[in-house]
Amino acid sequence: MLFNKPYGVLCQFSPTPGRQTLKDFIGVPKVYPAGRLDADSEGLVVLTGDGGLQHRISDPAHKQVKSYFVQVEGIVTSEALEKLARGIDLGDFVTRPAEAAAIDEPAWLWPRHPPIRQRKLIPTSWLCLRIAEGKNRQVRRMTAAVGFPTLRLVRHAVGHWTIDGLAPGSWRESPAEPSPVPHRQDHGGK
C-alpha cells in the first residue's frame, strides 16, 4: 500500500494521545510501514504485510533509492550540491553519495498545514535529493551540514513507487513489482 503521510502524523499504528497516527487513516489490518518518516516530514510511506518485502524496501543493503523534495532556508549553491553528491560526514556516519539538484517548487505540491515559518529577509529554495539509504533524520542533517537547514521535506518516491496523484492522507494499493497496467484504487483521507 502507498500512503501519502501528512505533516504531523506519526508513522506508527499504536495510538498516542493528542497525535494522529497511521491508524487514523488506514483501517487495513496486518500492514506495517517499510521504513518511516518523521512526524514533521510528509509524503510516501510504503506499507506491506510481507516481511520479506518490508526488509527489501527498508534495508539500506538493498539500495532502494528514495527521492525527496526539500525546501531549504537560503538559495542552495552549486558547492552545496557538489558536497551532497560526494557524501557528507555527519559525525556518526558518512552518507553515501546522493543525487542532488536545485529545482523549482513542484507545481503539484499541496500547501502544508501549518505552513513553514517564513523569514522576511531570508529566501528559500528547493532541491531534489535522491539517496539509497535512510537513517534517522538523514536528509535534514545532510542539508544542515552544507549550510541549508530543511524547512519542508516531502518524500516523493521509494524505488518505483511514487505519490503521484495521491492526495495527502490518502492511500492506494499497489503491486509489489511494477506492472505495465497501473493498478489504482485511492482511499481518501480525513
Would you mind describing this structure in some detail?
With 190 residues, the chain is an alpha+beta fold. The protein has two domains: 1-62 and 159-190, 2-Layer Sandwich (Alpha-Beta Plaits), CATH 3.30.70.580; 65-158, Alpha-L RNA-binding motif (Alpha-Beta Plaits). The chain contains three helices and ten strands; from the N terminus they run βββαβαββαββββ. It has helices spanning 51-58, 78-86, 138-145, and strands at residues 2-5, 32-33, 42-48, 66-73, 99-103, 124-131, 150-158, 161-162, 171-172, 186-187. 29% of the residues are buried.
Q: Descriptors for this entry?
A:
alpha+beta; 2 domains; 190 residues; ten-stranded mixed β-sheet; Alpha-Beta Plaits; 3 helices
CATH architecture of the largest domain: 2-Layer Sandwich
- Uncertain regions: pLDDT < 50 for 5+ in a row? 179-185
> Per the principal axes of the C-alpha atoms, what is the gross shape?
globular
Instruction: Give the number of DSSP strands.
Output: 10
Instruction: State the CATH topology of the largest domain.
Output: Alpha-Beta Plaits
If you average the pLDDT, what whole number results?
Answer: 89
Strand content: 25-35%
Radius of gyration: 17 Å
How many strands, what sense, and barrel or not for the largest sheet?
10 strands, mixed
Into how many domains do the coordinates divide?
A: 2
Oligomer: single chain
